[in-house]
Write a structure and sequence with these properties.
By secondary structure, the chain is of the alpha/beta class. The chain has helices spanning 13-25, 57-62, 76-83, 102-109, 140-151, 164-191, 196-217, 221-228, 234-244, 247-264, and strands spanning 6-9, 33-36, 52-54, 66-69, 92-95, 115-119, 129-136, 154-158. It has an eight-stranded mixed sheet, with helices on both faces. Strand 1, helix 1 (13-25) and strand 2 form a beta-alpha-beta unit. Helix 6 packs across helix 7 and helix 6 (164-191) packs antiparallel against helix 10 (247-264). The longest helix is centred in the last third of the chain and has 28 residues, at 164-191. The structure holds 1,4-dihydronicotinamide adenine dinucleotide and (2S)-3,4-dihydro-2H-pyrrole-2-carboxylic acid (A1CAB). Residues 9-15, 36-38, 57, 70-73, 75, 79, 96-98, 119-122, 172 line the site of 1,4-dihydronicotinamide adenine dinucleotide. (2S)-3,4-dihydro-2H-pyrrole-2-carboxylic acid (A1CAB) is lined by residues 98, 168, 172-173.
């Protein structure tokens, strides 16, 4: 792994976060990673980490063993058609583009390559992503390489491609849903007396603790809820009122609305 050459085409939010995450984990030398962007002055900070920056996609793709496609979905076809003639056989392709299936990517390349789709979430910037990955024409060794790369920036798992839209909703959009919960809790906290900064600190750490209980202890949410809900107590009154107002139902309907928009465009 250490000697693999990586090209990240599109040094935007996700592209830069992946580059930094891989460098921090030390599994590939920074000098083996090239990040491309048309306006390279916007990614000068990567150079301080010894990451190479370039505006030349073809040069970056030519000697890469692994290519991340981190441009927006509407830019992906053009980028693939630009680099395809220079991509060596067996090069691992990892597309981050939402909603573009592996068959289309293969069609744009006009040749068979190991193609992966990866759906991280924005917590990748702090090494806490939940990344779902699907594989197309890849062998086990290639799957392990891609899994290992994303494990440097959070948790990662391989899923069937047919679940990629669901993964997008639950993990990528999910960050926004969770943040809206924290924002709403903060608004409630202000109404019952906290200043906004303190309310946000308390709400955010409380959500982190709740998630860690499930992740570290491996318990079910209801098991943890049972520990907080004293009979005739305040928690169950609040929780039941939230459910009367449609809390779980609103969340489930939101998840389905996002999913339907990906699947049917509406
Ligand atoms: N999982 C998630 O939470 C999210 C996933 N995404 C997906 O990730 C991908 C990247 O998204 P972001 O990083 O947010 O986008 P971004 O817009 O920040 O980054 C894309 C970068 O590609 C560069 N670029 C465009 N054309 C290029 C070219 N021909 N050659 C080299 N560089 C070029 C742009 O200048 C930009 O810096 C998208 O395909 C999007 O669908 C986007 C947002 C959230
Ligand atoms: O909202 C969106 O369309 C993209 C997909 C996943 C996160 N952001």
């Amino acid at each position: 792994m250490k000697n693999k050459k990586i090209a990240i085409i599109g040094g935007g939010n996700l592209g830069q976060a992946i580059a930094k995450g891989i460098v921090n984990s030390n599994i590939v030398a920074a000098s083996n990673i090239t990040v491309t962007r048309r306006r390279t002055h916007l990614i000068q900070t990567l150079k301080e980490l010894d990451i190479r920056i370039s505006s030349n996609n073809i040069e970056a793709a030519t000697d890469a063993n692994i290519i991340f496609l981190a441009v927006k979905p509407y830019q992906i076809q053009q980028v693939i058609e630009e680099i395809s003639p220079y991509v060596q056989k067996g090069t691992i392709i990892i597309s981050l583009a939402t909603g573009i299936d592996a068959l289309s990517i293969e069609k744009y390349f006009k040749k068979e390559l190991p193609i992966f789709r990866a759906m991280p979430n924005t917590a990748i910037a702090i090494g806490e992503s939940m990344t779902c990955i699907s594989a197309h024409h890849a062998n086990q060794e290639q799957e392990q390489i891609v899994l290992t790369l994303f494990e440097q920036v959070g948790q990662a798992l391989i899923i069937p491609e047919e679940l990629m839209s669901s993964a997008t909703v639950l993990a990528a959009c999910g960050i926004a849903y969770a943040l809206r919960f924290i924002r709403a809790a903060t608004q409630g906290g202000i109404e019952i007396g906290f200043g906004s900064n303190l309310a946000l600190q308390v709400a955010a750490q409380t959500v982190k603790g709740a998630a860690e209980l499930l992740i570290k202890a491996g318990t079910h949410p209801e098991e943890e809820i049972d520990k907080v809900t004293t009979p005739r107590g305040v928690t169950i009154s609040g929780l039941n009122e939230m459910e009367h107002q449609g809390f779980s139902s609103a969340l489930i309907k939101g998840v389905l609305t996002s999913f339907n928009k990906i699947e049917n465009g509406k």
